[in-house]
Design brief:
nine-stranded mixed beta sheet, six-stranded parallel beta sheet, about 50% strand
């Protein structure tokens, strides 16, 4: 399935956009207002477009139970993506790689799912990623990523509409307001520089963070784990 442009307004009881093998999106204005899983393929590649999806289960999913030994992958190289998922926000049976664009994930509220989930690891090499969800199953970008990430966990669930602000010397780098309750935050911004110090404000609570490593954990990061190094997936390996 190949989408270059156009306007899509979709409501369905099953998948919003689906291919058995490869789903590729280069542009367009895509609104999936209701779905079980919003965008699915054994491989999903997004290079551009404005994409806003709502799903009962996974928001963007790389899977196909009929395939054996397929290099499942999700690749995001551009675009503006907003996911509101009842299951995993982004879920790959293989790898996830984010190299560009802006991806905002309002993940699940139940502890059996996560905002980010990949069997073979998550790489964030560019772009902007903000993912909120529960803390129990949180999965983070790999230390093999090229761009710094911050993982912030809170001891208790925060209500919907709690504002999150990330700044550097009072210059706001991003501001978002999750649409539902959350307990964990994963942030990776293309403006991050390793070694620099930033401030994350969640509601009225501020936390100063120095990015000494590619992956920085702050607060209660829960029972999940760091994403693995990943694998070659369906694209040339970048790590």
């Amino acid at each position: 399935l190949l989408i270059f442009n156009g306007y899509f307004d979709i409501s369905t009881g099953d998948d919003g956009i689906h291919a058995e093998y490869i789903t590729t999106i280069h542009g367009g204005n895509i609104n999936i207002n209701k779905s079980y899983e919003a965008i699915e393929g054994a491989s999903v590649e997004i290079y551009g477009g404005t994409i806003n999806v709502t799903s009962v289960d996974d928001g963007i999913n790389a899977a196909n139970a009929d395939l054996t030994n397929y290099p499942y992958n999700i690749f995001i190289g551009g675009g503006s993506i907003l996911v509101n998922a009842g299951g995993d926000g982004i879920d790959s049976n293989g790898t996830v790689e984010i190299d560009g664009g802006t991806t905002v994930i309002n993940g699940p509220t139940n502890n059996g799912n996560a905002a980010l989930d990949a069997d073979r690891g998550i790489l964030v090499n560019g772009g902007n990623l903000i993912a909120v969800g529960p803390v129990e199953m949180i999965e983070t970008p790999s230390i093999n990523s090229l761009q710094c990430s911050v993982v912030y966990g809170t001891p208790s669930k925060l209500p919907a509409n709690t504002k999150i602000i990330k700044d550097d010397s009072d210059n706001v780098l991003f501001e978002t307001t999750p649409s539902k309750q959350f307990q964990s935050i994963v942030v990776s911004l293309e403006s991050f520089n390793q070694g620099d110090t930033y401030t994350i404000q969640v509601g009225s609570v501020e936390q100063t963070i120095t990015l000494n490593n590619i992956l920085t954990n702050v607060g209660n990061s829960g029972m999940g784990g760091q994403g693995g190094p990943g694998g070659p997936g369906g694209r040339p390996p970048r790590w």
